[in-house]
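User:
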Amino acid sequence: MIPSTAGSTSNAVKPLPKHPEVFVVIPTIRDVEFLNNWADQFRDVTIVICEDQPKKSVKIPKVGKKTYHYSWQEIDADLGDDGWIISRRNSAIRSYGFLKAYRLGAEVIITLDDDCYPVKNHPLIDLHLRNLRLSVPKHWVNTYPDARHLYTRGMPYLNRDEAPVMLSHGLWTHVMDHDGATHLQHLNFRAEFAEHFLQIIPHGAFFPMCSMNLAFRRELTPLMYFPLMGEDKNGNKWGYDRFDDIWCGIFAKKVMDAVGWAAINGAPFVRHEKASNPFHNLIKESNGVESNEQVWADIFPLGFKSTTAAQPSGMYAELAHQLKSYDSYFPELKKAMFIWSEQIEKS
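Assistant: Predicted structure:
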């Protein structure tokens, strides 16, 4: 039985149209010739390139029905004094692409890294859209993670369509998304598993969200700000790196659980080709490891005054207000989260 697309009155969202406006956001510092490998699949989507350079310089092949190309120059011209909330020298610059896609009317936003390629029998757009049309149980986890969602014996019928899926977390073959320490222990490991499975992320649980292959509904954009990482616009280091998607996932999942929205993990897969330097990653991650242990544990028990799907940006700001300041970085992050909410509200 395929899960229903109906949601409860508090968490309900409009069904996706048959052919939704899909935007693919790609952060990069190099020519994006890899897009030629996606030409057939991206024929009907809009491409947003977020170039992590002062000015536009990369070459972009003619892929997709339309392409938007932004660099630091366009970001600062658009956001003015608020431009500092967009990270530099870090793939978290993709947040600006999310904001632009939202403003331009995207109904589904997919983000993909520039070293990810198609996997046979895993049509990226089709499978992400399939996932984002599902509704799933909130408090039960199916023991058979089949893409058709064949529920096993004993699964209650009345709660099978409680939570609309708002986030589709795709996976990867070849180079896994490991941290530096794990990568150093398994330098030659390559993943070839690419089964058509789907796993519901349980209600009330967090997961390590990776931005290499990720899709979400438009309504989730208020929660999809990737925290300050790498450097600021003046070249000063923020002090943290490689936790942007992870911390975004923690904050987003907390609000999603309160509203009654779901996240799903599994197919589609992409082939991740380039392994980043594990020694460099180990250094980049070193400052964030301890904070990462604290952030999720302190977010977990938080509550909200309002838990309606109509107010996700307000709930996000409320979460930001409750976020603890472990060091001088976190007050700046809180300000950035407030400004992100304001930018969404103005869009």
